[in-house]
Amino acid sequence: MNNEYLITFHTHFQALTCMRILEKNGLVKNGSVVIKLIPVPREVSSSCGTAVRLNLKKDIVFDKNYFNEIERDEFFKLGEDGKYIPV
User: Fold this and answer.
1) Residues near 83 by Cβ (< 8 Å), separated by ≥ 6?
2) What pTM did the predictor assign?
3) Would you kindly state where each structural domain of the chain is located, as residue ranges?
4) How far is Cα 83 from Cα 69, in angstroms, rounded to an integer?
5) Which residues are in the Putative Se/S carrier protein-like domain (predicted)?
6) Where are any strands of DSSP class E within 9-79?
């Protein structure tokens, strides 16, 4: 089972802010969640932009409520077919 998620943002600044917040999270610090700033994949959006990719270890559950206080656009999960699905 793939446990990769993508968060898109309206601005590059919002993506950087999210990264800073996530870097302080205990799950990121201990390696249970790996984060990376990436360009938004074309299949998700044709506009230019920056996204945060999260790779969660299999025992970690994604909770988008954690991001309620973070300005963002959408959440996606990488499906088994390699395509991003809105969450």
Assistant:
1) 43
2) 0.87
3) 4-86
4) 27
5) 4-57
6) 33-39, 50-56, 75-78
